[in-house]
Amino acid sequence: MSIQDKRNEIIVPNLATGVTTYNLQEQLHDLQATTIVELFEVNAKKYGAGIYRFHGGKVHNGDVVYDGETYKSIPVEIEEVEIKGDGSLPRPRLRVANVDGFISDIINGKDDFVGLHFTRKRIFLKYLDAVNFFHNSNPFGDPDVNARFPDDKFVINQKTLEDKNVVEFELVSVLEMDTVKIPSRQIISNYCTWVYRGHGCNYGNTLVHVPERFKDQNSHQANGGPIADAKDKLFTSSTLNGGYNFSTSVNVSWNELDEDGNANTEVFHGSGAYSNTGIYLSGDLVSIESFLNSDSDGFKTDDNIKLYFVAKPTGKAVTEINGASFSHFNISGSDPRNDKSNWVQDQCSKTLSGCALRFKDCGGGLPFGGFPGTDKFGYV
Hints:
Helices cover about 10% and strands about 25% of the residues. The chain is globular, with a radius of gyration of 27 Å. The strands form three sheets. It has a nine-stranded mixed beta sheet with strand order 3-4-2-1-7-8-9-6-5. The chain has a four-stranded mixed beta sheet with strand order 10-11-12-15, with no helix packed on it. The longest helix is centred in the first third of the chain and has 8 residues. The protein has a domain of about 170 residues. The protein is mainly beta and about 375 residues long.
């Protein structure tokens, strides 16, 4: 067995932090180690802007490609990142060049980036992607995106300076934020803390709540269909009983047959992801990606977390399309998140009754995230 094979046998698998051990330690103990490259990320998905990636340009001229992502070269410096021996948490200062108001334009309308997550990645030049070097060939060794130091993660606490030359931010540890609580899950008796359809709830996730465990495996509940709004107002109940009165008579009778060629008895018609150029009629069910479906690093955490909206029979009446008679309502061109008069969102009230509307017929019980047993009870 060669030395390389023997070495591969003893390498510790990737850690949960995303870093490896052997290649990193090899460079740390190398008397001629290559330079460390600092890469920075700001997660602005909260504002629909994605993740801003940049580096200081001190080690590598031009943009840097790391793990397939491009980090723009911007004059930037960060200081006071080191952890002190007295146990106090660091409060780094991040200064970014503001040539021609470049940074001012980016943070404008985004609350000066306050509250956004900031990440500093450090990796040896030797392990950068090969595309960064001449002829796409790394002269120092083989690229290894995991051979890096553990990421330094902070939250942008405030903007401390902004002028025509520079914008400066103060960063703090996530444990130093006023809203942080340890442990992070609070014990609340009558309120569910799970994100609707996310981990813990998993409504509509047929791998977790398999349809066979429901009394009726073809029901809306078994397949994650829309049930009610945030006030437990049912979609398929009559208006007299406090519902929206969705039914096949006003919704999807235009879609007469299902995928098997049988008469379509579904109240709602799944229309996939919402598009502002789509044509939607009453009863159409659309989904929109939720920013809650990403963690602080911008990675998707749960594909089941989406916003679902149903088109109400309140738009412009449609009586004929290409000679065919219809009795539906066209509400195309209106964003469901803003048009509350024509769309209604499927939401959970975060109460036991809201959870029961979706899981009372499930053999696995209610995944309610509250703690009803902590309520005070009188004894006689």
